[in-house]
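Quick start: read one record
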Amino acid sequence: MSLDALLIAELLALGAAVGFMAGLLGVGGGMLLVPFMTLIVSNRGVDTGLAVKMAIATSMATILFTSLSSVRAHHARGAVRWDLVRTIAPGIVAGGLLAGAGAFALLKGRWLGLLFGVFIALMATQMLLARPPRATRRLPGAGGQAAMGGVIGFVSGLVGAGGAFLSVPWMTRGNVPMHQAVGTSAALGFPIALANTAGYLIAGWTLPPALPGAVGYLFVPALVVVSLASVATAPLGARASHAMDVRQLKRIFAWMLYGLASYMFAKAWFG
């Protein structure tokens, strides 16, 4: 089977939608990318368990590209706490490698699919409640920050996300202003993606290609097409957000996420 025009069109549409919604609502693209990538890959004859792993790995790898443009914008506004990045990143790299090269390969795709379903259901609930975390304490020292980085890198690697769903609430509860927490989380997205993608490549190196262009768990053609499309449409979504009622859109998007969570549950449970 070659990389046909229909597959390219599907990946372009998915990347464009992911980029636009990320720019419009400020959400992580993996919440959309993983379920639809699972659907696209499994419809081409890939076993469900492997399809889920390929979707998660490819979703994580796209963050290598999307995080760079995001962190540049946040850095220009002085919103990146580079001192925190330096202390948290070593733990992130260790946790990411442990997840990507270890737990990811050992866990069955079915359980990863169920875990991802729980993840996006929790994100949907958070969007509906729209309750910002309250500052209750200070961040721990360098050792504690590195340890938390390990947790963020490990969990992110299992669900193919950039880690902001953990790092932003943790930092804001530690009295880091919200705009700095978001900017710093964007900067942490690159080491998260780099460590986990390296881990996925190590873990899946001996696997035969499930599809043309696949390298282990990583579906390289999808990575390229989706990244190009999402980077192109993210600025359009950001501009549109200023002309639309984003709060109402977030409610609608949250209910769509519940639907995607249900799909992942069904796909993982029934295959």
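The mean pLDDT is 86.
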